[in-house]
Structure formats: C-alpha cells, structure tokens
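A further point concerns the way the authors explain their paired sequence and structure data. Since the whole study asks how a given chain folds, the encoding of that fold should be made plain. A single example would do more here than another paragraph of explanation. An entry of this sort, consisting of the sequence and the corresponding backbone structure tokens, reads as follows:

_____
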Amino acid sequence: MIRTTTAARMESTGVSNRIQVSQKTADLLRDAGKGEWLTARSDIVEAKGKGRLQTYWVEPGTGYAVSHSRTTGTEDQTTEVIDSQHPLNNNADGDGPENGALAFANFTDATTPTAVASAESVKTERLVNWNSKLLEGLIRKLVAHRQTISNEKSLADENGNKKEQNQQDTASVTGDISDRYNNNASPPSNTKGTIRDEVASTISLPPFQKMTGVVDRESVEMPTQALHQLRLFVASIAALYRDNPFHNFEHASHVTMSANKLLHRIVNMNHTQLSQHEMYIHSFGVAMDPLAQLAIVFSALIHDVDHRGVPNFCLVKEDPAMAERYGNKSIAEQNSVEIGWNIFMEPAYAELRSCLFPLEQEMNRFRQLVVNAVIATDIFDPELVAMRNKRWESAFSQLAERDDPDFLNRKATIVLEHVIQASDVCHTMQHWSIYQKWNRCLFIEMYSAYLSGRAGDTDPSAGWFEGELRFFDNYVIPLAKKLKECQVFGASSHELLDCAYDNRMEWENRGREIVEALKESMDNTKLQL
C-alpha cells in the first residue's frame, strides 16, 4: 500500500481553482505576516487516516500571481500545483515571495501558436518575478547578517574590551570584519585549468560568532539600482534557457524552490532549545552562513542555462570545440557556470555585486560555492562520483576523524552539494503526479533527440522502464538516505525517502504502461509532422 502525505489525502476534498492548505501551513503563513491570505474553510474536512481536519483557502495578494488551469481530467493535462505539505514544496516559510502556494501552469488547453506563446511569456514573466524576489530576500538576509557583525564589533569597541567566552558557546569578535573573511577566503578562480578544476574537496565556512542584536532583514535598505539589476540578471538568465521539454527555465525554478526549501529546513530546524553555538555545530555552520545559502540558490538558478537538450556524451560529438575547452568532462555543467558567471560579472550588474560583496574575498568564496554546487549536478561522471563517495566516508562514516580541524567544513561542503543534487531530482521525491510530469518531460526531450538523430541509435523507450528503477535504486533512494544520515533536515529527510519509495513502487506497477503510451504519443506526433 502506498504511503501518502496529508496533502495527498486532502486532494479529494479540494475545489477547482482554489488553493487548500492545512493548519500547519496556515500557521506558517500567519508567522510570515500573510494571515490576510487565509480564509478558514467552513466545513471540516474528513481525511482518511487523519480524521477531522480544519483547512484553509489561500488567496494571495495581487503582487503574487497564482495561475489556475482548466483541467481536463487526464493526468498529463493537470496543472502542477505545489503540494503545500511536501518538504520541498511548502512555500509558506517567509523566505521572500514564495509565501503561499504557487502554481506552475502548463497551459495545455491553449491550442493556437499565438495562445501558447502568450501563455509561455506570462509564465516566464511570473517565474522571473518569483526568482527575483526570492534572491532579494536572501540578499537582504546576507546584508543584515553583515550589519549585525559590524554592530557587534562596534559595541565591543565602545566597551573598550571584549568579553572572554567559553569556546563551546561563542567566539570572540576579533580584529576587523575583513580579517574574518580573509581567514576563510577561497583562492581566486582558476585561470589556467577548466572550471571543473576549481572544485574544492572542502570549502571553509566562517567561524562561529555569537550575535546578541540581530538586524532584521526587512529593515535593510537595498539600493534601488541593485534591485533593478537583480531582476535584469534573472531575466537575462531566463532568456538563455533553451526551449527544452525538461531542461528549461521552469525546471530551473523548480530546482531553485526546492533548494531554498531544503536550506530553510536547515536554518529553521525545530531545535529552539539549542544555543547559537549548538545550532552552528548541529548544522555544520550552514545555518549561520547566508552567503552559502545565497550561493546554492543562485547555483540552482543557473545550473542548466544553455542546456542543449542532450547528455554530455552527445555534446562531445555535437560541439567538439566546447567539449575540448572543458576537457571533455562535465561539459554542460561547466558551460552553464561560465555563461551564468560571465553575465553576472558584466558591468551592468556592478552595483548588485557591490551590494553582495564589499570584499573580494567574499566574491571568491561565493564563486567557489557556485562552482562546487553546479558541478555537483553532474551525477554520472565516474571520477566525481568516486570523489564524493570518498569524501562522504571521511566525513560521515564511523571512522571519520572528529579531531580534524576541517571536520565541520567537510560536512558542510557535502551537505550543500547534497542540497542541490536532491533539488535537481526533487520531482522523484515529490507527489506521484509531479514525478510523472517531469519524467514525461524528460522522456519527450530524450526521445526527440533520438528521433532527430542527436542521441545515437538506441531508442530510449526500450530501456526507460528499467532505467527509472535503476535510477531510484542506485541514486535517488541512496541520496535520500544520505540526506537523512546528515541529520540536519529534520522530518523532511524521512518524507523525501518515503516519497522516493512510493514513486518507485508505483513506477514498478505502472511504468511499462506509461512508457508505451508516451512512445505511442511521440510516434503519432512524428507522423503528423
């Protein structure tokens, strides 16, 4: 029997074109200052296995467009509505514009080319706005963190001395703020080798510093020009995503949302009894490093930019010059980093960079985090796989050397990479309908490449059923287990693993039939053309 989430049990009680959320999600919305979005449902919902539930209708303000689709009753034509109870989809956490539920419209009922183009334009515009506001919230958090550190130093200077504190509870504020980042700066970007050569086995996060007066990020004043440049940057990245069925800007936005949610689970772990230092140790420093959090979400945004719709082994044949430039390894990933970073470094975004990186060392560390994260999405390269497995053993196995000064940094590096890896395949660990939507998109992309002669002579449909089972067994489920073993994601890791098992079971039961239907649909489309 398939295990289901509360949201899945609520699905049968929903109403067309309305967003229904649970009491828990409603509480999170209120905490985020969005209580006006909520209307208590007048009738109590009876949910099998859950009993009587009070649920709420969500009606976001006009600043957050929520799209609705006219569903036709078939699974492949249903709008993907973000599951408000899923650990990667709960957007009501106050981390920017994603407060409330978000729907990605497929616009499958628009039949004319003009209607389709118009719908896609509206969808892209909405996603650009959403990603821009999400990044703005993370940037405000970073600036507020920096101001808090500066205030702590000023207070210490005014007192004329610095209190000695237990090393297990706090760290002293020492020297200039720049010294703190100098001691933890990553080396400058590699100017001789490939981008992949920049990958570091361990990235140093800032040391712990106790903060008594935290600056509220909502009080941070952001330069208007920096905010304008931020949106322009996101729009530029969106424009460079190709019109692939799977590797497109909507996928990037899905990955960005999921990465932000996983990071939010680390930062807001349900350990209110922990001191700041205990939280720092428990999260390996990630919870108190807003620059690292911003870097992961930034990486998710750019991680597939200019993706050609075929795997790396095909790119070696299609674009040998590009493949050679990147050493014939991680070609698509390195290309995405190069394009995304080069755009980011253009003069048009100078004020945005100045707002983010007052110090060069901060920008160097940011780039290091981005390189590691994007290259981590190459999950099929045997050298990278071997390196990651070795690092995991050195950090999380029972033989891990806890006296190693890089012990926490090594764990933090692995956790951050696992966040983007899990987010990149998050559809496999979400509701069955979401998994099927993205699995269908990937099949169409791969089968189209095969039909056009870009992906060799092997028909992908011939091994798609078995390939998905192997992918669950050899990558998705082991990855979900590692997220659980990291012990920093709370209940989310259990839910992700449960969903992965559920989807694998359902695929084993229905996968062959689904593949046959997909292949028949693609073949019919080819005949019509």
Notes: Residues 113-159 form the longest helix (47 residues). Confidence is low (pLDDT under 50) at residues 62-85, 90-111, 162-189. The radius of gyration is 23 Å.
